[in-house]
Amino acid sequence: MSTVFMPKTSFQVDKIIFDLDGTLVDSAPDLCAAMNHVLATLDRPSLPLADVRSMVGLGARALIGQGLKATGGIPDGFMIDQPLDLFIRHYRANIARHSQPYAGAHDVLRLLKERGFALGLCTNKPQDLALSLLDALSMRSYFTSITGGDALPFAKPHPMHLDHVRQSLPGRGAAVMIGDSITDAKAARASQMDVILVSFGYSPEPVESLGADLIISDLRALPGLIVKENHR
Ligand SMILES: O=C(O)COP(=O)(O)O
Ligand SMILES: [Mg+2]
């Protein structure tokens, strides 16, 4: 039996929860530079941007782990904490050198906030780095709640992360998740939340295969798709 993808075209919610890397901000160039800085100190070859892009999604520790695996492996007993620390220091110092909001991100966030939606951010980026990046790009003030991947015992795809953001937003209405990867889709499913995926992010798998309710190729489509829940 074949299943037909029937995208939803309207989402009635009060809360909109965004992913950060690959969804609102194209941060891969700066993540790639920090990765290659670490690899150089370990006498490993550098990785092209296209490879690093597809490794982003599970936080800094997983990113470094994947970078090491791709350049010779992780020797037995290798302590990842030191390269991770080096990565984070390099990344923090260069966090918005090349990173940019995707087209329309500012306008869409401003408009949705003006329309009365509560906006949250659920990212696997460590909390302090997420806040620094949002500050550097003047994006922090759109969000009522921001939770990084190290702020709780579990991060996406665990539902605790997304549930926490939903609960910390005002109101009791429904929420929709906007993301770019399988971690976003899985977290949303586990939290029984609709999920819209963007097609321009960092997913190594085709986004069509991730079970989204809708796929968009431009953030500017969102205001036409998401309507305020009617609480009468
Ligand atoms: O930094 C990462 O690895 C992932 O971040 P994201 O959850 O905002 O995509
Ligand atoms: Mg992402």
From TrEMBL:
SUPFAM superfamilies: HAD-like. Mg(2+) binds at residues 19, 21, 180. GO terms for biological process: carbohydrate metabolic process; DNA repair; glycolate biosynthetic process. GO terms for cellular component: cytosol. It holds the Pfam family HAD_2. Its EC number is 3.1.3.18. The keyword Membrane does not apply. Its cofactor is Mg(2+). The keyword Hydrolase applies. Belongs to the HAD-like hydrolase superfamily. CbbY/CbbZ/Gph/YieH family. NCBIfam families: HAD-SF-IA-v1. Specifically catalyzes the dephosphorylation of 2-phosphoglycolate. Is involved in the dissimilation of the intracellular 2-phosphoglycolate formed during the DNA repair of 3'-phosphoglycolate ends, a major class of DNA lesions induced by oxidative stress. This is Phosphoglycolate phosphatase. It comes from Iodidimonas nitroreducens. The gene is gph.
